[in-house]
Each structure stands twice: as structure tokens, then as C-alpha cells.
Amino acid sequence: MSAAAAVRKFRNFCGAAVALALFACAPAGAQSNTGTSLGSFLLIEPDARIAGMGNAGAASRAGLQSVYYNPAGIGLLSSYGVEFTHSDWLAGISYQYAAVAVPVGRFGSLYGSVTSLNSGDIDVRTVDQPLGTGEKFSASDLAVCLGYGRMISDRFSAGFQVSYIQETIWHSSAGTAALSVGTLYQLSDDGLRIGASLENFGARAGFSGRDLRIVYDPDPSKHGDNSQLPGEVFADKFPIPVLFRVGLGMPFKLSTDLAMDCEVDAFHPSENTESMSMGAELTLKKALSIRAGYQNLFQKDSEEGLTAGAGFKGSSEDIHYHVEYAWADHGRLDHTSRFTLGVTF
């Protein structure tokens, strides 16, 4: 590609990104409902490659790496694949993610994923025993997902995902199901990509379990009646965080050995204000990559910001592998790191 063509292509991409930014910040007066939904762990992006690019992945063509951001991405995959991600999340919380893809020929591809978040053991404390009762409890989250996608044409793909989500605190839990759908379109070979997805559309859920069982005295002023009636506290039901994202992606061939990929996403979440994320990846000889980005621009009271990362791709006969790392700033909450290992064959 000539320098003039590259500049013209980049200028066109910037124009489209500005239009997307106007879409993202137009309803900037929207109210934030952060903390009012169940299953907020679903908003933690798993893939270290895309996380290093500001978590902008709605228009990514990375196959299994991109299915979290847009289920249509699996339609581009024609080989078996597995991916694992580990992150020491905020406050010592452990985050794990695993995904597997299975092609089914001309019918497209299937994939499954498991996401786990665990707090580890926490001391049980009460008003009478503020230093601890000697008991331990933990909080954990789990999402099990199954998805399908296929190429509708040589430039258009679509996909969907069904998920079961569960949150557990000690002996009480809440569970529900959700649906995600997405589409991905590429305007031309090595041209602009447009992706959109609606994630986590599902039913409300409330906690239940033995921790909510109580002993009830219907009339404490009376004596001689049964003051030890069994009862249960019924918890309110809460929605899960629905997220609509639309994104643009554009590859650039800078030289024979050097390529760049730019991504921009805009978000409309159900529990927060609108925002956008952007990032870029520079790849040398299709093997070594460095990345940078910025996430949740325009979001009200956001603690997130800069991201960075690096990765390496290699192969041995018919087995292709990639190792990725991402760093993300969380402001006053410090920072997080993600490590991803993926294999296709």
C-alpha cells in the first residue's frame, strides 16, 4: 500500500470513529445505575489481546478471542481452538476464563465458555465478634455459555450465545439465563469492519438459600405461644447488565513486515452512562505485537483509562498458538493484569 493510500484510509477511519464518538456521547446526561444489577462480573472482558487495545472488540476478526465482544466473530473460525485467561482482579479476587471452539463445516462453528470469579475465604465477623467468629465464607460468580455463528456471505457473519449465570454468597445463590446476539460486516477486503452486539438480555433473579432462613416470632408481646416459627426472607430480584456495543475496525499494511489494526467501540449499557473505547495493535512479521488503548471514555465517574499489552504468535506444523498480556489502569483501585494462552489446530 502506498503512503498516500494509507493516509487516505486512515483519514476515512478517523472520520467514521468521530461519528461513532458523537453517537457515544450524545446522551451524556443519562443517569448512572451502577451497582444495581446482578452479575456485574459479566462486564469483565476476558481476552488479553483485546483488553490491551482498550477492550474495543465489537468489530474484531480474532475468532475465538472475540466471541465475548461479538458472538458473530466465531463465524470466521474454520479450525478447532481453545483459550485460557487468568487475572488477579481487584482486591485479590481471582478471575478465570476458558473457551473452546468446534467448527461444523459449512454450517459454521460452535463454541462454549466458562467464566469464574472467586473472592477466596473471608472471615465471618459480627457486631459481637468484630475480630471474627472463626468461620469463613466466600463469594463466587459463574457463567456457562454456549454459542454458534456462521458466515452468511463472504463479508457478513452473525452469531448468538446463550448463558447461564449464577452468583453465590456463602450458602445463598441467584441464577438466571441470558441471550447475546451479534453481527459483523466487512465493507471490502482489508477494509473497514462494522460490528454490533447486544449482550446479556435475560430475566431478573434474586437470592435464595439457607442463609435467608430465619426464626420468627409473630407477636413478641405474647407469652406461651410458639415464638420459634420457621420463616424465610424473600430477596428482591435484580436485572443483569444488558450492554449494546457497536464498533469499527480497520487494518493497515504499513510495510512488508509491519501491520496495524485500529479498533473503536461505543457502548450503551443498562446500568451506566454511555462511553467509548479505542485501541491499536502494531504487529511485526505476523508474530510480535504491541498494543495500547483507552477504555470507557466519556463514562461518568469512571476509574478506568489507559491500557497496554503485548503478544506473540507462533506455530508448529498444524498447531498455532498465541500468548498475550494486558495491563489496565483502574485509577484509585490500582491496576489489573490479564494473561491469555490460546491454541488453534
Helices and strands: which structural class?
mainly beta
CATH class of the largest domain: Mainly Beta
Distance between the termini: 31 Å
Query: According to CATH, what is the topology of the largest domain?
Result: Porin
Percent of residues in beta strands: over 45%
Which H/E pattern describes the elements?
HHEEEEEEEEEEEEEEEEEEE
List how many beta strands DSSP finds.
19
Number of domains: 2
The parts where pLDDT drops under 50 for at least 5 residues are: none
**Second-tier CATH architecture of the largest domain:** Beta Barrel
Q: Residue share in helices?
A: under 10%
Number of helices: 2
Radius of gyration: 23 Å
User: Could you report the average pLDDT, rounded to the nearest whole number?
Assistant: 88
Biggest sheet architecture: 14 strands, antiparallel, barrel
Q: Which shape, going by the Cα principal axes?
A: elongated
3D architecture notes:
There is one protein chain. The protein is mostly beta strands. It has 2 domains: 3-204 and 240-344, Porin (Beta Barrel); 211-238, no CATH class. It has 2 helices and 19 strands. The protein has a 14-stranded antiparallel beta barrel. Strands 4-5 form a two-stranded antiparallel ribbon. The protein is elongated.
